[in-house]
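This week, look over our next protein:
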Amino acid sequence: MGVPAGPIRVVVAEPGLDGHDRGAKVIARALRDAGMEVIYTGLHQTPEQIVGTAIQEDADAIGLSFLSGAHDTLFTAVIDLLKDRDAADILVFGDGTIPEADIPPLKEKGVAEIFTSGATTRSIVDWVRANVRHPA
């Protein structure tokens, strides 16, 4: 099976009760400016809404942004829902205020990459280009 034609499609979401979406909007804009199709879901999205959107939109990846501290629970819920819905091929990555100590366990659960607050939009765009549709 070949690589799908067309631009990389990414759902960008701000899950949970976090009310701050500036970072998610910056990432969405950077991915869009890099030629990707971006579906921005907005604030207060449940894992079910995020996964449903990703499947409906035939997304290649889901980017989650966190400031609320609920990253462990919400990343896990998204990963589990993708598996339950036979969509585990959709890559999940994230950014935000995530403590370094939390990153290895999240990656063990299936999160492909986590960018902390010092990451540049260029590094995120480059990672998506290198890893989405190009399994390591």
Notes: The radius of gyration is 13 Å. Helices lie at 22-33, 47-56, 71-84, 103-109, 121-131. Residues 13 and 50 are 7 Å apart (CA to CA).
